[in-house]
Design a protein that fits this description.
The protein has one domain: Aldolase class I (TIM Barrel), CATH 3.20.20.70. Helices cover about 40% and strands about 15% of the residues. The chain is built from twelve helices and 13 strands. Strand 8, helix 7 and strand 9 form a beta-alpha-beta unit. Helix 6 runs parallel beside helix 7, helix 8 crosses helix 10 and helix 11 packs across helix 12. It is globular and about 55 Å long. Bound molecules: flavin mononucleotide (FMN). Flavin mononucleotide binds next to strand 4, strand 6, strand 11 and helix 12.
């Protein structure tokens, strides 16, 4: 029964084709003469109040593209032209890895809830190819590289994979996100134990110590961590040279769905990570928790269910310094980004105007409070 139901729903609900089509158009638009110029003109009107300095770098906007959209670094110029202030490429794996190992793997659209169910293995052309792609970029958008071990690598060898990515990529990207929330396929990797996480991070800190240029290192955490585990991750940030946290990736929970319950039931026991609006409250709570425990002393990148300027502003108010989107960009493309940029710019302009008299904080502070 489940099998017969599954087929038609998969046909309706799969988002892979649409996603590939969008990416293809975005890639081509940046290649044609004046393509980037017109994209920028249309999607990214001036928004001076969005600028900020974080990690000692100047971000033109706090709104970034989350990992998973540009796995291989082929859309860098296009995302810059669209008006993102930064982007995470990847997740990159050391060796090439196909995302299509199971016939069931797919990205399911749960449109009624502005959500995506991502049941797929991370797809990466491998570190060497990604470096080749990054070298071809012509824009100067800030790039974070999301790194993760290959699925075939044994858990105990994960630190070797992360270092194999970190070293060659070091000179080509601006910051790193160590992905600790690979939970969308049958092989999940979500380390939560402090020693296990430190075994990954320590070699990266050591390598960085010998370099002339400083590259911030962040970890990306799962929204499925318990409060104690979130605190433990925050403490790693407080006690080690870790520079920040990206909160969060997708959830294996199935909460926050108001209109897609039927689809979810019909899909049956499809595992994978739920992303988009249902994730919003959990991500906000986690960002707030990290912010309070770290007393606002570290940058946090808020990610999960951000689709409007209000969502982005709420995330900043919860303690995030930067925000990232995936699902809302998947559904709304450049128009969503444009509206978010314009709306957030207006909110920040008003905030700065109101706080100018009280001199709460400098707008370029790494972390900032919004009352
Ligand atoms: C199809 C898909 C692929 C993703 N791939 C990655 C990935 O490779 N690495 C990662 O850290 N997060 C990945 N994510 C998670 C997103 O970066 C983001 O954390 C999540 O979608 C929550 O944001 P959203 O609610 O705006 O979608 C992926 C999400 C989706 C939907």
């Amino acid at each position: 029964m489940a099998k017969t139901l599954l087929k038609p729903i998969k046909r309706i609900a799969k988002g892979n084709f649409i996603l590939q089509f969008h990416k293809w158009c975005q890639f081509l638009a940046a290649k044609i003469p004046f393509g980037k110029y017109f994209m920028h003109k249309h999607y990214a009107p001036p928004a001076n109040h969005l600028e900020r300095e974080v990690f000692g770098m100047r971000f033109s906007s706090p709104i970034g593209l989350a990992a998973g959209y540009d796995h291989n670094g082929t859309l860098i110029d296009s995302m810059d032209a669209m008006g993102f202030g930064f982007m995470e490429i990847g997740a990159v794996t050391p060796k090439p890895q196909s995302g299509k190992e199971s016939k069931e793997y797919a990205i399911y659209r749960l449109e009624g809830d502005n959500a995506l169910l991502n049941y797929s293995q991370i797809e990466s052309e491998g570190v060497e190819k990604v470096i080749e792609n990054i070298k071809k970029r012509s824009s100067r958008i800030i790039i974070g590289c999301n790194i993760v071990k290959n699925n075939s690598t044994a858990r105990e060898n994960a630190p070797i994979d992360y270092l194999r990515l970190f070293r060659p990529l070091y000179q080509y990207v601006d910051f790193f996100t160590v992905n600790l929330c690979d939970n969308s396929s049958d092989v999940t990797y979500v380390p939560t134990d402090k020693d296990e996480v430190m075994a990954i991070l320590t070699p990266l800190f050591e390598f960085r110590r010998g370099q002339n240029q400083y590259r911030p290192i962040l970890i990306k955490i799962s929204p499925d961590l318990t409060d104690e585990q979130i605190d433990a991750m925050t403490d790693i940030m407080l006690d080690t040279p870790l520079d920040g946290i990206v909160a969060t990736g997708g959830t294996t929970g199935r909460y926050g769905l108001e209109n897609s319950t039927q689809t979810i039931h019909a899909l049956g026991r499809i595992p994978g990570a739920l992303c988009g609006t249902p994730l919003k409250q959990r991500s906000l709570d986690i960002v707030r928790r990290i912010y309070e425990r770290s007393k606002g002393t570290y940058p946090i990148i808020g990610c999960g269910g951000i689709s409007t300027a209000d969502d982005a502003f709420e995330m900043l108010k919860a303690g995030a310094t930067l925000v990232e989107l995936y699902s809302s960009f998947f559904y709304g493309g450049g128009e969503t980004l444009r509206n978010m940029r314009t709306g957030l710019n207006e909110r920040l302009r008003k905030y700065e105007q109101n706080s100018a008299s009280t001199q709460v904080t400098s707008p370029t502070n790494t972390t900032q409070e919004y009352d």
